[in-house]
Amino acid sequence: MTLEFRKITANIGARVRGVDPTSELSDDTVAVLRSALAEHKALVFDSSDLDTAGQERFASRFGRLTTAHPTVPGGETPHVLDVDAGISKANEWHTDVTFVVTPPAISTLRSIVVPPYGGETLVASSAAAYRSLPDPLRAWADTLWAVHTNVYDYAEPRSDSQSNYREVFESTRYETVHPVVRVHPETGERGLFIGGFVRSIVGLSATESRDVLRLLQAHVTRPENILRWSWEPGQLLVFDNRITQHYAIDNYDDQPRRLSRITVAGDIPVSVTGERSRALTGDSSHYSAIPAEVAA
Ligand SMILES: O=C(O)CCC(=O)C(=O)O
Ligand SMILES: [Fe+2]
Predict the structure, then answer these.
(1) What b/e readout covers 139-152, taking b as 16+ CB neighbours within 10 angstroms?
(2) Where are the beta strands (DSSP E) in 209-286?
(3) Which atom of ligand 1 lies nearest, measured to the CA of 119?
(4) Which ligand is nearest to the CA of 72?
(5) Residues 29, 111: contact at Cβ < 8 Å?
(6) Does residue 296 fall inside a structural domain?
(7) pTM as predicted
(8) Which of 55, 85, 240, 253 ranks highest by number of CB atoms within 10 Å?
(9) Which residues pair with 174 in a beta bridge?
């Protein structure tokens, strides 16, 4: 069977046929998958036999794995983050772990328990969002930098479990300055690099930051830029965390929903002028090692 990518929407998403994620992947197959991910931003595989070990093996073909999270402990293994509706729901637009200086390059989500209705994951192309900006706004965005943090000062937790999760999530404070427009390290493609962990735009007041972010974020969340993935159990969604945002829709009442997340380590983001992101607060090297040539 040959590898086949069937587009799901014009701007983002493809279903993958002809490869079994549980199998030993050849270097050629990994290269084809890597370039398909660069093109489509999100890939969906059917793989009802995939377990945690298989997901780890698959993800590690794309690079070193991060630990589960900078502050939240791992599940079955140190690399696995349990995504469990009973613990927390990611119904905010975000790019994973942008509060550290090396956010994951790739996120993989495997469905284990899927609610009978709802529970879709939205994935947005921030490259399409960038392209859709009017010229003057795009040129301005190229010059902006944003502070990202894991410590919120808004949205009170609504339950004990949410409040416990928040406490663990924020147990070490991280702050990092990233370019608002990030150049993809493999393709050179530009994308808006913002999302839910952004606290402010450098040089702007809180109110001005909010307004600018609202304006830019509105382009990310245009329906044309979004894949709405409706899960079945035993599927693997892989997205390029360097050039997407995602959102877990909370539309399934109190029914169980469980996924497992494993992420591939990323590099330090680079702006359109070649400047790198900088960590302001918090050492994240236990989560995702800083490349040696940069740390030196
Ligand atoms: O639950 C989902 O669909 C997404 C969860 C999520 O955002 C994450 O684990 O990073
Ligand atoms: Fe996420």
Answers:
(1) eebbebbbbbbbbe
(2) 226-229, 235-240, 244-248, 258-264, 278-281
(3) 3
(4) 1
(5) no
(6) no
(7) 0.95
(8) 240
(9) none
Whether 94 sits among the annotated catalytic residues: the reply is yes
Would you give per-residue pLDDT tens digits along the chain (296 residues)? 689 999 999 999 999 999 999 999 999 999 999 999 999 999 999 998 999 999 999 999 999 999 998 988 888 889 999 999 998 899 999 999 999 999 999 999 999 999 999 999 999 999 999 999 999 999 999 999 999 999 876 566 677 877 888 888 888 899 999 999 999 999 999 999 999 999 999 999 999 999 999 999 999 999 999 999 999 999 999 999 999 999 999 999 999 999 999 999 999 999 999 999 999 999 999 999 776 655 54
Of residues 96, 110, 184, 190, which has the active-site annotation? 96
CB atoms within 10 A of CB 287: 22
Q: What CATH number is associated with residue 57?
A: 3.60.130.10
Q: Which residue in the list 69, 246, 257, 267 is annotated as catalytic? A: 246
Ligand 1 atom nearest to CA at 96: 10
The total number of structural domains in the chain stands at 1
Measured in Å, residue 27 CA sits from the centre of ligand 2 at 28
> Which residue has tokens 């949410």?
162
Which of 83, 238, 245, 263 most suits a substitution to test ligand 1, by most atoms within 8 Å of the C-beta?
83
Give the ligand 1 atom nearest the CA of 83: 9
With respect to residue 292, please indicate whether it lies within any of the assigned structural domains.
Answer: no
| Domain membership of residue 11 as a residue range | 4-287
